[in-house]
Amino acid sequence: MSKNIYLKIKRLLDIIFSFLGIIIVSPIFLIVAIAIKIDSKGPIIFKQKRLGKNGKEFDIYKFRSMIVGAEKIGTGVYSKKDDNRVTRVGKFIRMTSIDELPQLVNILKGEMSFIGPRPVLTYHPWKYEDYTEEQLKRFEVRPGVTGWAQIHGRKQLEWDKRIKYDVEYAEKVNFILDIKIFLITIYKVLLMKDNVNTIETVKEEQKLN
């Protein structure tokens, strides 16, 4: 099967399973929404600008797990162990990856896929125009909830290494690879592994790699 044909089939599967997923997890949506609202002030859903396919900006959806305005204080974009900006409910939904469930809507809208490079911030690790020609290949496919880089370390990887895995995925994307990523992701989610930053994952010199 050619890459282009598979990507079309993959998009169809994304539509079907994201639609079914929203229906199935809707009771969890309700419970988490109530818990967030009771636990802390602020919106239930956290929206943030990310870069999608071909560098197009979109709003990613997550259940809010931090206090309002968290990025402007503390460690900025990095959330570390015992981060006091994370709410009580936020600690649980982050640990279990429940905070990512609203991205089912992003998938249904065509902004994301279940599997692909994680969508990066518009300014971090660097701006779109600062990616090298090789690194820009990661934007040739839809970003995903999980991906090749995530099963190789997730938040423990420095950004230059993450991007290399992203580029490799974009070049090799196929059904077997996606199944492998999916199964390993489930395993890591169940073990709650690699979901906290323990190191600074971007350095100025990495832009040149």
Quick summary:
This protein is of the alpha+beta class. It has helices at 3-39, 88-95, 103-109, 159-172, 175-191; strands spanning 45-51, 57-63, 113-115, 120-121, 144-146. The protein has one domain.
Count of separate structural domains: 1
What is the number of E strands?
5
Helices and strands, in order, run as HEEHHEEEHH
Identify low-pLDDT runs: none
Number of helices: 5
Spatial strand order of the main sheet: 2-1-4
| Quaternary structure of the protein | single chain
**How far apart are the first and last residues' alpha carbons, in Å?**
33 Å
Structural class: alpha+beta
Helix content: 25-40%
Q: Report the principal-axis shape.
A: globular
Q: What's the rounded overall pLDDT mean?
A: 89
Q: What is the radius of gyration?
A: 17 Å
Characterization of this structure:
The chain has 209 residues and is an alpha+beta fold. 40% of the residues lie in helices and 11% in strands. The protein has one domain (3-208). It is built from five helices and five strands; from the N terminus they run H-E-E-H-H-E-E-E-H-H. The strands form two sheets. It has a three-stranded antiparallel β-sheet with strand order 2-1-4. Helix 1 (3-39) runs antiparallel to helix 2 and helix 1 runs antiparallel to helix 3 (103-109). The longest helix is centred in the N-terminal third of the chain and has 37 residues, at 3-39. The radius of gyration is 17 Å and the shape is globular.
